[in-house]
Write a structure and sequence with these properties.
Elements: H1 7-28, H2 36-50, H3 53-80, H4 98-103, H5 106-121, H6 127-145, H7 168-194
Length: 199
Amino acid sequence: MEPQIPLWVKLGYTLFVAVLVPIYLRHYGPANFLWFSDVALLATVPGLWAESSLILSAMTVAVGLPEILWNVDFFARLLTGRAPLGLAAYMFDQRLPRYLRGLSLFHVALPVLLVWSVARLGYDPHALLAQIIAGTLLMILSYTLTSPSENINWVFGPGSKPQRRLRPLVYVTMVIVSFPVLVYLPTHLVLARLFPIAR
């Protein structure tokens, strides 16, 4: 069977991730790789090499909508000087080295690569359940293994700071429940409608 993903895409993407990982580890620490976008960045490597429609579909379900919002925020700030959401504010933080911010431009390319890969391989509808399970575990890990000051995956509050109105366990439970409804399910429905079902 002919490969659906060209070798140069697999090699180029893998090389980029191999360069990014040690730099991110040094600057941000290992907890940074619990962010959904970073998990998707890493999981896409085996997804591409195995040409796994399940892995690539699940990662698209996980980060498709959040990455679109990140890009809206980034390009709005780039073009108008104002970021409506604040998701990409760190990209304009002069205290961070330019090369480090440059590596974060993977947020622009990753959703394009994921959607392109799903278009070639087909969409696996099992991705929804897989991502609900994986996403729930990831949020539990983010809540139990990281500090509120890092607020990874917004498990302690919306935005960069922890919230104080609700008890932490109540808030994180709300986040865990809301992501499948507000993020995963809408993306799943769009992908299932746009692309053929994977064999």
